Amino acid sequence: MFAAGAIAGGVVVLAIYLGWLKPEGVDPVRSLPHASAVDPAADSAPVQPAVAAAPLVPAGTCPSQPVARAGTPEDGQFVVDPAAAARSSTHPEAYLTVAREAMEAGRTRDAEVALIAACHTAETAYGRPSAPLADVKSQMGQHYVALAAREDLDESRSQLLQRASALFADSASAYASALGKNASKTRMAEQRLAALREPGATLPRAAPLVVAAPREAEPDTSRLGAARSSSLVDRAPLRSEDLGKVEGDLDRLYNQARSISRDPAGVARRHQQALAQRSACRGDAECLRGWAAQRKRELFSEF
């Protein structure tokens, strides 16, 4: 329903999704009440600050303001309005689409604002604790981890990781309540949280993920982790394979590797780094298959 492209296109799509009509001569970006645009180059008179008590924001668990620095000169066009987002009947996916397009354009702060709006709308739509809200918080946490990985200032880096840690803790608790303590999403959120809380934990500098083209191979006749032949270890998942099942197999293989390793903390840190790389795929199936093949080789090397 949403077409990928420039962030301006994403905002227009969002306006259409909400059913708003663009009046003649009105900028569709400026008409958004939840993620409104500001022109950083405008030379108009300073705007007086709004009265702090005006917005009636219900008590919630989502962040209220962004903390990331602008990623490009064009970044920072959106400002979040938690009160309006909380009253919105919009599906969180609309804001997640804008966040994804902002990231693709290098506008990391605008992406953060869109994620915050998605969190508030998910909390209103689904309540807490709920799996959909936990999904959004998990995505936000991964966004902050990715930003922290390339942050040069220690203070800013620490602030980003603190917010990521809080979001992972919230999502783990929500998943446990909604899906059960043994659910894969619960375990994944707990693993991400544990990796961040490890003493001396470090994150890699963000870098583009190099994905090899999937290679053709004979059908897999064994469960992932049951055999260590080079053909099974090196190949990427076939297009016919369910990526959800593949990631479940990788999750089990990771747990096996960590349980027998003499350095489980190191295994957990490397796992968090791999998850940060996975997030760079942004849901692209071919990219995820390449990542899965790479991750499988890494996990086998842990044994």
Describe this structure in words.
- There is one protein chain.
- The protein is mainly alpha-helical and 303 residues long.
- The protein folds into three domains: 107 residues, no CATH class; 62 residues, no CATH class; 72 residues.
- The protein has eleven helices and two strands, in the order αββαααααααααα.
- It has a two-stranded antiparallel ribbon with strand order 1-2.
- Helix 5 runs antiparallel to helix 6.
- It is globular.
Specify the structural class: mainly alpha
Oligomer: single chain
- Average pLDDT, rounded to a whole number, is 70
Count of helices? Answer: 11
Low-pLDDT windows of residues: 1-58, 204-235
Order of helices and strands: HEEHHHHHHHHHH
Structure characteristics:
303 residues; mainly alpha; 3 domains; 54% helix
Helices and strands in order:
Blueprint: H1 7-18, E1 35-37, E2 78-80, H2 82-87, H3 92-104, H4 108-126, H5 131-149, H6 154-179, H7 184-197, H8 230-234, H9 243-260, H10 264-279, H11 285-301
Antiparallel strand pairs: 1-2
